[in-house]
Amino acid sequence: MTVRVRPHHLLCLLTYVGKGYSAAFVANYDVIARRLSSGEEVELVEGPDDICGPLLDDADPHCWRDSVTERDRQAALDLKELLGRPVEAGAVMSLTAARLQRMRAAFASGKTRAACGGCEWHELCTAIAGQGFAGVAVQRLC
After folding, report:
1. DSSP string spanning 100-127?
2. What CA–CA distances, in Å, run from 36 to 30, 66, 74, 108, 126?
3. Helices marked H in 5-96 — which ranges?
4. How far apart are CA 114 and CA 125, in angstroms?
């Protein structure tokens, strides 16, 4: 199986520590973090993904907003450059320990943070990166 992930969530999962929009959102994200940590691959999608699931029943889910689509576009550009591979719908990738380390180093340095501008989680993610990503949920040993 694969976990369906939109491009900007490739950045979000780097700093996920069990905080989110609601209890249902966090419970869902915790399951996804365990799946990714166990080695399930990521399939990139356009629009709402498996992480967005619990928010889609809201009256006006932000997952469909143009600002979120723009975050995806910017994240895809930054990550394509960093990873040297397409970051587009249909692409499949593994989040190996080495890839996560590379992505986290780029995130911490600000190299892949253009998509994060204006995000309500920006300060939390910055603090987590500044603490060496201690306590993050998505971890790979190999």
Report:
1. HHHHHHHHHHTTT-GGGTT-TTHHHHHH
2. 10, 27, 23, 21, 22
3. 7-15, 23-37, 66-83
4. 13
Residue 97 lies in a domain: yes
Full residue range of the structural domain in which residue 8 is found:
2-130
Which residues, other chains included, contact 96 with Cβ-Cβ below 8 Å and sequence gap of 6+? 140, 142
Residues 36/95, Cβ–Cβ less than 8 Å: yes
CB 138 within 8 A of CB 16: yes
What's the residue count for the chain? 142
Does some domain include residue 141? Answer: no
The one-letter amino acid at 93: M
pLDDT (tens digit per residue) in 114-139? 999 999 999 999 999 999 999 999 99
The pairing of beta strand 2-5 with beta strand 41-44: parallel
What the block records as the tokens of 31 is 């399951």
Q: Tell me the pLDDT tens digit for each residue of 59-78.
A: 777 888 899 999 999 999 99
- Helices 97-109 and 7-15 cross at an angle (nearest 10°) of 90
